[in-house]
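Handover notes (outgoing to incoming on-call)

Open items:
1. LysR family transcriptional regulator: sequence verified, structure written out, both below. Nothing else pending on this one.
2. Nothing else urgent.
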Amino acid sequence: MQEWPEITALELLVAVADHGSVSAGARAVDMAQPNASRSLARMERSLGVPLLTRSTAGAKLTPAGLVVVDWARDVLTAARTLVDGTAALTETAGGELRVSASQTVAEHLLPAWLAVLRTQHPEASVLLQVHNTAEVVAGVLSGGCDLGFVEGPRAPRGVRTAVVARDELVLVVGPDHPWTRRRSRVGADELVATPLLTREPGSGTRVRLDDELRAQVGRPARALQELGSNAAVRVAVQAGAGPAVLSRLSVADALASGAVLEVPLDLELGRELRAVWTGPRRLTGLAADLVAIARSHTP
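LysR family transcriptional regulator C-alpha cells:
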C-alpha cells in the first residue's frame, strides 16, 4: 500500500511553486534547505513521480510536479478546514463567521484582513473556504457561508454586494518568451489568437478576460492549458509553457524578482473585488467588521 504524503512535505512543495525555488520555499515554511531537499526527494520516491528537475541553476517543477502542486493545494485547504473547524468546536464564545473567498483574495489579501479581525475579536472563530468566484457566490446563495469575497467585472446576481478593493489583470510571460523583446502593445486581436495558460471557467480572472475579449473581438480567450490556481498558472509561465493573463496581486512578487515579465496590453482589464452576502442590506457583527477591515486595509 502506498504511503500517504506528509502534510509538511506538501506544504513545502506548494511553497516551492509559489516562491520559485527550493531555497525560497524552504524559507517560507521555516525549514532548513538540506531538510527540505530530503523531504522532497522522499516524497518523490513515495509517490513514484518526479516532481522536480535539478540542475546547477537550481530546481524547477516538472509538468507532473505542477499537477501535483494543484492537488496538494486542495489537500492543504482540507487540512486547514479540519484544523480550523475542530478549533471552532471549542471556541464559540466570540462568535463564528463562515467565509468563502476567491483564490486571488484568499491568497493575497484575506490573511492580513483576518489578522486585524483577530486583534479586534480574539475569541471569534473564522471558518475559511477557498473557491473560484462562481463557487463562492453559489455557497453564499445556498447558505453554506455567511460572507464571500469575489473578483469580477460586475456584481453577481442574487446577492448583496460591496466593493472592498480594486485590482487589474496583466499579461505575463517567462523571461525567454519572444514577447519580452517586442516594443508594441499586445492588442485584443493578437491576444485572442494566442493560446494562453488560463484559470478554469468560473474563476473571476477568466470571466474578466473573456468578457473583455468578447466585447472587443467577439471571441473568448483560447486556452492552451487550464489550471486550477493562480500559482499553478504562474509557475507554468515561469517554466516557459506560455503566456497568461493574471491578477497583478498574484504575480507581484514574481514580477519583482524577474521570474516573469509583464508585456503591455492594449486593453483595460481593471476589476473590482467585492464582498457578497444575502439577507439584510446592512451587515452586522463579525461580517460587518471584516468588510470594514477589507476596505481600510487593502493596498
